[in-house]
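User: Watch each token:
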Amino acid sequence: MISTLFLDIGGVLLTDGWNRKARAEAIEKFGLNAAETEDRHHLTFDTYEVGKITLDTYLERLVFYEKRDFGPQQFKEFMFAQSKPHTEMIELIRELKKEYKLKVAVVSNEGRELTEYRIKKFQLNEFVDFFISSCFVHFRKPDTDIFNLALDVSQVAPNEVVYIEDRPLFVQVAEALGIHGIKHKNVETTSKILENDFDLKLPKHTSKKSK
């Protein structure tokens, strides 16, 4: 019996918040040096994701280590604008939660300001019960501690949980703990797996939307 869903945000509920494609667009828009920007990103972004520095500090290290003809607020607005909802997936989770009284937890790697913006902008806290985000708990996937903490907070056994994630490595780590994993590609394939493998049959009106 499945009682709980663990969900990633980027790639599942929403687009990625700040991925390579978004950074490439920022590099072009703001006239940054591509190689140096990527190097600086990889050296400091993990520290931001685990909540040890603020977004302002990350941007100081990434962009504003020298004088620019634009300000941090412009850059932040561009970053936040990259987030778009996967509307059908959000609706699917809402309907499953309502139909089966499921607990829903987010288990994600994201920085605090991006996480808070995305939760508020897309009203994720209307259907997510708790957020085990790297910026809040100070470790990140694939560290097994983040999954164990999510299990402790939800107070369920691993075999009661389905974890929906678009990155295969993270699915494999969760499965090694006894959690059921779904490698998410799109709402159609994930909804079929939920129905066929876990008997989470969708309400009829939701099934029609997903086609």
Residues 34-49 form the longest helix (16 residues).
